[in-house]
Amino acid sequence: MATIYLVRHGQASFGAENYDKLSDLGCRQAQVTGAYFRDTGVVFDAVYSGDLSRQRETARLAIASQPAEIAHHIDPRFNEIENDEQVKYLVPEVVKTNPEIQALVDRGLSSGKDYQKVIEAVFNYWVSPACSDTRLASWADYSQGVREALADVIRAQGAGKTVGIFASGGTLATIVADVLGLGGDETYQFYEPVFNCSVTQLFYNRSKVSLSYYNDCSFLRVLGAQQDENLVTYR
Prior knowledge:
Elements: E1 2-8, H1 24-39, E2 46-49, H2 53-63, E3 72-74, H3 83-94, H4 99-107, H5 112-126, H6 139-157, E4 162-167, H7 169-179, E5 199-204, E6 209-216, H8 218-227
Parallel strand pairs: 1-4, 2-3, 2-4
Antiparallel strand pairs: 1-5, 5-6
Helix pairs in contact: 1-2, 3-5, 6-7
C-alpha cells in the first residue's frame, strides 16, 4: 500500500535571533526519528520538504539513516504558515474584540505559551470570512497550495511507494484536516498539539487519501526513557 509519512521538523530555536534553525535537541530528535524509520524497516522511495531550514535539516538528518541515498525534493508549498506576518498584520484586528489577546501582547509575548494563544486567535481569524487582509496569503490560497503539493507528490510517486514529507505544524494540520474533509474553522485543533518530529501516516491510491494515524511520538518517549533524556517537545 502506498504510504506517506508526514514528519514535523525537530525543535527550532524559539526566542533566538534566527528561529529557523534546529536547536541541539531538534537535531537529536531528527536523528532519532531517522533511526526509528530505519529500525522499523521504513525505506523511503523519496522525501519532500519545504524550503525552510528547519524542515530541510530535519529531513537531511533523518534520511542519513536510510540504507541508500534518497532523492530529497524541495517544495515551498510545504512551508509553514507565516505566523510572524499574521501576528504583525492581524493582531490589531483580533484585539478589537479580544481583550485577553491585547493583555498578552502588552505583556510582550516572551513565553511560548502566551505566543501560542496569540497564534490560535490569529489563525482562527485568518481562516474566517472576516479576514480580507491582502498583505497576507489568504487561507484559501494557502490551503489550496498545500492540497496541490500533496496531490503532486502522489501523482509523481505513484502506486506502491513510501514517501516522507518533512514540514511544519500548520502545514501538517492543513493536510490532516483536508484529508478528513474539514474546513479552516476546524483545522487549528490539529495544529496546536503537534509534537516536534512526530509522525503522521497517510495511505493513498489513485482515488483517495486516508489517515492511518496522527502525531505519534511514542518512539521518542520510549528512547528518551531508555536513555534518560527528554526528547518530546511542542516548541
